[in-house]
Design a protein that fits this description.
The complex is a heterodimer of chains A (112) and B (113). Chain A is mainly β. In chain A, a hairpin with a 5-residue loop joins β9 and β10. The N and C termini of chain A lie far apart (41 Å). In chain A, the strands form two sheets. In chain A, strands 2, 4, 5, 9, 10 and 11 form a six-stranded mixed beta sheet that branches. A five-stranded antiparallel beta sheet of chain A has the order 1-3-8-7-6, with no helix packed on it. Helices cover 0% and strands 60% of the residues of chain A. Chain B is mostly beta strands. Helices cover 0% and strands 50% of the residues of chain B. Chain B contains no helices and eleven strands. In chain B, β9 and β10 form a beta hairpin. The radius of gyration of chain B is 13 Å and the shape is globular. The chains are: A mainly beta (112), B mainly beta (113).
Chain lengths: 112, 113
Amino acid sequence: KQEVTQIPAALSVPEGENLVLNCSFTDSAIYNLQWFRQDPGKGLTSLLLIQSSQREQTSGRLNASLDKSSGRSTLYIAASQPGDSATYLCAVLMDSSYKLIFGSGTRLLVRP
Amino acid sequence: EAQVTQNPRYLITVTGKKLTVTCSQNMNHEYMSWYRQDPGLGLRQIYYSMNVEVTDKGDVPEGYKVSRKEKRNFPLILESPSPNQTSLYFCASSFRTGAEKLFFGSGTQLSVL
């Protein structure tokens, strides 16, 4: 059974710092991996989607990488800002069933 | 405006009283799905649909029903709600299964007394 783990569970950094969030998964038979942002009391917003054949995706200050064989993905946030404070979740879409499995998230606080 | 609309935003009900949470998208998306979010358990998929009249179980389908009679709508039905179904529910959609980003609704906070 697929298990998705995110480390750390919480992170507090000063503004301007570059940071890395980690996501690992146990079953490499995935169709794609997606990173989301969730603000308190709100729905999820998709940030980046990486297909299983891709190695990375970039959007502005965000860069996500995928190493399918080792079961790892990272989300890199450059020059963090207080507005980046939110919970970040990764999710994998299974290849055979199209089920979507979420990690438990990393709660990020960027201090001014 | 492109969006996924869930109703109601908040719902308090009693055990055993049938309810429906509606979900509608205006983006002509093929793929729609339902999730519940619980503290300590994260987001778990309940049901998903790859197109009209095609639905399949996610990880936690027990106690829920869905239907996909039209492309834009994907209601979640609780025939006999129980207190362990108290949760925050999200609907989501994407243009094609797996190929596009997921768009989420704002959520429905359900309390079953």
